[in-house]
Every structure is written in structure tokens, then in C-alpha cells.
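Extended Data, panel c. Modelled sequence:
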Amino acid sequence: MRRLWIGISPCPNDTFAFHALLERRIEVPGFELAFELCDIEELNRRFLAGEFDACKVSCAALGGRPQLRVLATGAALGFGVGPLLVAAPGVALERGSDGWPLVPTNARVLCPGSHTSASLLYRHFHAGEGRVEQVVFSQILPRLAAREADYGVCIHEGRFTYAGLGLAQVEDLGARWEEREGVPLPLGGIAVQPRLAESDARALERAIGLSIDYAHTHRDEALVTMRRHAQESSDEVLWKHVELYVNRWTRELGPDGARALARLRELAAQLP
């Protein structure tokens, strides 16, 4: 029995989709699965360093790396799923002549990791604006609420909780992407190392699809797993997260999803 080392995030969409694999309700024939749950930027760094056989990674981290394949199951992408640029209490909003928000040069902006798709979108749409600091995503909203920074790029469960901390939405970066590109926004996908044989990658892909199907039909079981790892304790928020981020593209990337992924990878390869 060979061991397959897999990295995923503790976010509800991942723990929902992988619940049956984490709890061994579904297995990959010939493999023993070993999971590690980490912050998305840690996953990005460690996968790019070759540590995981398969891993949830930011789509932006795949730019300029055509050797890294993305499975057709387990992705996070869609319309209305993008990161939000939010402001600390009392921060005044500025807009340019095109109507889009402007971030002052001296403003302190918190982003959730240099390899993340959220950071890529901020750099793309706000090049040269603000003083960017990369931090773990779970620190962004509390630090903004404490007025330790002016702006932050909000991802994961924070999309549903920022207003309760007195923060204001400045811009939906995903909506801006959708308007300009006309395709869903790819946030993350399950990437595999080149060392993994094609047949093994396909077996894992099929197992992830079965795990997603299992979670949909065993929601109470999946909720226990989601609660165990979530940053946010509210079941309502957990299910909102799943309803938004686990969609038809998660089950099967398809041609539209593949085109969107290729476009984001192209953009990531172009930016410094």
C-alpha cells in the first residue's frame, strides 16, 4: 500500500468535499491517504517546494508552472465567490475617474499571502496602490477591526462575517474580474505533482468526486468534520460557505472552468 500525502485547507468547502476521504468512507484503491490541513498560503509554499503529492493550491500559484496539473474535481471557482477588499472603521473611500476605488499610496493593506489568488487580483487591479503586508488570512479581519491597518483582502468565511466587525466593503474583486473577463473566478484547485502517475491522479480525481457526492447525501456527518476544523463556529456561516464555494465546478471543472483557470494562470505568469 502506497502513501499519498495530501494537503487541504481547514475551510468548510474543503472539509465538506473531503469529508468522506478524511473519515475513510471513500478510499483510493492501492493508496493510504495521509492528510494535513494548513492555511492556504502554507499549502502553496509547501506544494511548490514539492512536499505534497496532491494539494489544494491557489490558482494564482500555478502561473508559469505548466508542469503542475489540476484535477477536474475539488476546485473552488464560480461567480460571486471572489475576495472582497474591505476597510477598517472610519477609513474614507476614494474613487478614480473610472469609478473604481483607489487605495492611497500610504495606506496599509493586508493580503492573505503572496501566492494567493486574492493577492493576485489586488495586485492586478490596484498596482502600486497601498503598502501591502502579507499575513495569515485569519488575522486580517481582527487587525482591521483593531485599526492596525487601513484595508484588507477578505477571503473564506470572512466574506460572511466582516460586517459584524464594523468593517465596510470597498470592492468585490471577483465581480471586477467577472466584468472584465466574462468567466468564473478560479480561486483554488487540487494540483498534483509531476511525479504522480496519470492513472493515480485519475484515481484520486474519481475518489474526490465520490467524496463530494457522499457529503451532499450525508450532510450531518460532513458538518461534524467541518465544525472540527472551522475558524468560524456558526453552522449558518459554515453552510453559507459550502453553498457558495462547493458548486458544479467543484464536482467537474468542465470546459468553462478550464478556460477560466487557464486565463488566471496566464495573468499570474504575467505579473511580477
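The domain at 84-181 is CATH 3.40.190.10 (D-Maltodextrin-Binding Protein; domain 2). This feature is highlighted in the accompanying rendering.
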